[in-house]
Amino acid sequence: MDNAAIADNFSLLSKLMDIHGENSFKSKTYSIAAFYIEKLPEQLSNTDRNVIARIKGIGDSVAKKIIEMLDTGALTVLNDIIADTPPGVIEMLNIKGIGPKKIHTIWKEMEIESIGELQYACNENRLTLYKGFGATTQQKVLEAINFYLANQGHFLYAQLYPVFPQVQQYLQQLFGAAKVALTGAFKRQMPTIEEMAFVVNEDNATIKPKFISAFPPELLEETDNSLLYQLKNGLRLRLHTGTGNFAQRVFDHSGSPEFVTGFYQAFPDLAIDTANPDDTQYFAAAGIAYIPPCLRESVSIIQTAQQNKLPALIQPGDIKGIIHNHSNWSDGSNTIEEMARALMAKGMEYFVISDHSKSATYANGLTEQRIAEQHVYIDELNKKLAPFKIYKSIECDILGTGQLDYSDKVLASFDLVIASVHSNLQMNEEKAMQRLLTAIQNPYTTVLGHMTGRLLLSRNGYPIDHKTIIDACAAHQVAIELNAHPRRLDIDWQWIPYALEKNVLISINPDAHFIEGFNDVTYGVLAAQKGGLTKEKNLSSFSLQQFDDYISQRKAAIK
Fold it and tell me: What is the predicted pLDDT for the residue at 214?
């Protein structure tokens, strides 16, 4: 077992103990252990077992359980408590707004053992009868349940990114590479995926026997021209079947219904080789530029292609520097030097360290004194690592008033400031807009971080008027982050065209808390492509000299 799996087991054990009302000291011990294990730079499987107990946050009792997991792949005490807990109660941990102690009340006092029962109880206004559950809490729980149930069966694009080659190869082995073609939401690079879809140029009678095995996937749905399977990992696999019009079926399922309908209306009579699944022939036959699948969402893109104005989409290789990162000075796992050297090895030109600000006490946010110390450290590193450059930044909390977390004097000491909301996320639109607009108007705000605070498939963002926010960023020359963490991808790609129209820079940033997090930039780029972003309009695609000039001009404008 790797560190992440071990930490997850201890975290779940801690929560289940609280749900059962067991000793809070013991449950907190496991929670602390999970916290520290997740941040370890070395895998416990590679660590001398005699020293595990001496690692910060672990101790003898926890160490024995770690060794048990390393030896057996399981944790007996966790398995026992899971066996004593109704599955529906455990599932409640996925509902935002109800922690283990509230779940204890729901289970033990309300005698509710499933999310469906809990949803019903909320609709019946029964939660308000219990301590700790007012009308507002009940409404938030109900909204969270509805959101959770609506997103069951969905996956993040990043979750399927490493799985896709395996699924494709498997289908090609079964039916031959020439008879299999990717389509659907994954091909269009949608941030979340409900089904992975392929066209298979065979009929149902030929396909179905191929899936009979020792562990066959479940057949959920069958029509004359499609099969829907559910794989063992929960992924639904849609096969568009049949032996005719291969090219048309690939094309029809590689764009949104709006796009496909609009294309056929614009070009009703095209000469197509139906046996050839390459959909580039559709655009060649129409006499227009090829529209990549990621842009096949709205009809308007067809007119753009007709005018030969399709953007040269940003590519992962266009990223020159990595902006918005957290080191072990706040809640990151690696030192600034380790992160910088990792980026140097990747051929990057610069690195922006943006640890949390002081109000983020949960993330070890930087006090003014620690900021000064970090800046001295960065100066020393820049001498050592030149010509590679580390920029001094901060992810500065936007406070409830919209003010930033430091005085102007402190803010002026940074090369750039990323302003983000991290607290009191349950806001109405009026409050959210007030906070964001005030922060954008602050002359020290360089980049607006994760604009809506959303977590895909987990948490809706706070409501905002996107156009007004983008207009304000344009007026105050504030770049907008596309936070590349696969659970954020915030700003949403659908608002990138409006930002580009207003000449607002986008900044694809990984929000990395460890070295491997740099790789999330790829998902940010794929999301940005859907919005038509080019490298010229992406801040992290600036060369070192361009970025240096940009920072200098922004700082000069403040003075």
Answer: 66
Q: Which two tokens stand for residue 176?
A: 């031959």
Express each pLDDT in 83-109 by its tens digit.
999 999 999 999 988 999 999 999 999
Could you tell me which of 188, 165, 168, 170 has the C-alpha nearest to residue 252? 188
Q: What is the DSSP letter of 328?
A: T
Q: Is the dihedral of CA 364, 370, 371, 374 positive or negative?
A: negative
Q: What is the mean pLDDT of the chain?
A: 94
CB 153 within 8 A of CB 230: no
* Helix or strand (DSSP H, E) at 464: none
- For residue 359, the SS3 value is coil
Q: Which of 305, 299, 294, 263 is nearest to 184 (CA)?
A: 294
pLDDT tens digit string along 123-141? 777 888 888 888 888 898 9
Nearest to 182 by CA among 197, 195, 194: 197
Biggest distance spanned by C-alpha atoms of the chain? 75
- Contact predicate 454/491, CB 8 Å: no
Is it the case that residue 500 has pLDDT exceeding 90?
yes
pTM recorded for the entire structure = 0.83
- Which residues of 408-466 form beta strands (DSSP E)? 416-420, 447-448
Find tokens 């304000």 and name the residue. Answer: 472
Taking CA atoms, 164 is separated from 157, 159, 186, 188, 359, in Å, by: 10, 9, 9, 13, 41
Q: Over pLDDT 90: what percentage of the chain?
A: 79
